[in-house]
Design a protein that fits this description.
Layout: H1 2-16, E1 21-37, E2 44-49, E3 52-62, E4 67-77, E5 80-81, E6 89-104, E7 111-125, E8 135-146, E9 149-162, E10 165-180
Antiparallel strand pairs: 1-2, 1-3, 1-10, 2-5, 3-4, 4-6, 6-7, 7-8, 8-9, 9-10
Length: 181
């Protein structure tokens, strides 16, 4: 399985080496977040308050007219937990990105897309007397784009361990960005 994955990555890299490339920058606002604590047999959900902010940059390469693969990095200022009165941690996810362009909205030049990110999040202490561990990061979403302007909605999830408790910080992110060619 590992060899198959490595071969897939090499072939993917070779096919995108000379392909259409662009850099996309984005700022996102997080809302409707929860910190899910699975430290016991019952998962506890702690609601969040306030707004979190994401700053992201991605390098994307076209595989064909509709499919793009790339890498990204973000700096995330996470929402505060209502229960803990602090955000528990900040995040710097490094991830692989997949974007699939679906088509155009009726009678417009806005193109729709589906997007997925998968990577590893480096989590940083933010308030409190705890040191968070790094963990898995993923996001699923979609949006529209036109003339370099990108509007996106995504569900994001960042995993961490704080004081021997596993936390799963999930939220909705509403983003606006710009694509540089």
């Amino acid at each position: 399985m590992k060899k198959l994955l490595l071969i897939g990555l090499l072939v993917g890299s070779a096919t995108t080496a000379m392909a259409d490339k662009y850099i996309e920058t984005r700022i996102g606002l997080n809302s409707f977040g929860t910190y899910n604590d699975d430290g016991s047999s019952i998962v506890k959900k702690y609601k969040t308050k306030g707004i979190g902010v994401d700053f992201a940059a991605e390098l994307m390469n076209s595989v064909n007219d509709n499919l793009y693969l790339g890498t990204g990095i973000a700096y995330q200022i996470n929402q505060e937990s209502k229960y803990h009165n602090d955000p528990l941690f900040r995040s710097i996810p490094v991830y692989g990105a997949l974007k699939y362009k679906i088509g155009y909205l009726e009678d417009s030049s806005w193109e729709t897309f589906f997007k997925a990110n998968l990577g590893y999040s480096f989590n940083i202490k933010d308030g409190g007397d705890h040191t968070p561990k790094d963990g898995l990061y993923y996001a699923l979403g979609g949006g529209i784009e036109n003339d370099g302007v990108v509007l996106e909605v995504s569900y994001q999830d960042t995993r961490s361990k704080v004081n021997k408790t596993n936390y799963d910080y999930s939220r909705l992110t509403f983003g606006i960005g710009y694509r540089f060619r």
